[in-house]
Structures are given as C-alpha cells and as structure tokens.
Write a structure and sequence with these properties.
The protein has one domain. The chain starts with a helix and ends with a helix. The protein contains four helices and no strands. By secondary structure, it is mainly α.
C-alpha cells in the first residue's frame, strides 16, 4: 500500500456512528441498557429523531 492509497482512505475500515457503538456495546455486554445513554446524549444537545431512537432501541433489544 503506497501513500496514494493512504490518502484515498483505502483502509477497508467500517465506519460506525455513536449509536452503532452503543448497540454493539450492549450486544457485547459492556452496557446493560442503551436508553439511559441516549437520554443523556439528548439532554446534552445531540439531535436524534424519535424514529432513530426507536430503531436503535429495537436493535439493542430494548
């Protein structure tokens, strides 16, 4: 892999957002619940639609 490949972002990395990390943390046993973390993020100004929240809670089994 040359420097050109590095600048193009050819790392074969998957990008996961904050909510995806929370779901994975719950699935892996690092979090017992996602909802309290989502509520804290919203109270600190993170803008999340009700649809996104319901989808994340469904994916995390809550």
């Amino acid at each position: 892999m040359g420097y050109g490949d590095l600048s193009k972002g050819n790392f074969r990395l998957k990008y996961t957002g904050t909510l995806g990390v929370l779901v994975k943390a719950k699935q892996s046993g690092y979090l017992s619940a996602v909802a309290p973390v989502i509520n804290m993020l919203r109270s600190k100004g993170m803008w999340l639609t009700d649809k996104i929240i319901s989808d994340v809670l469904r994916l995390s089994g809550e």
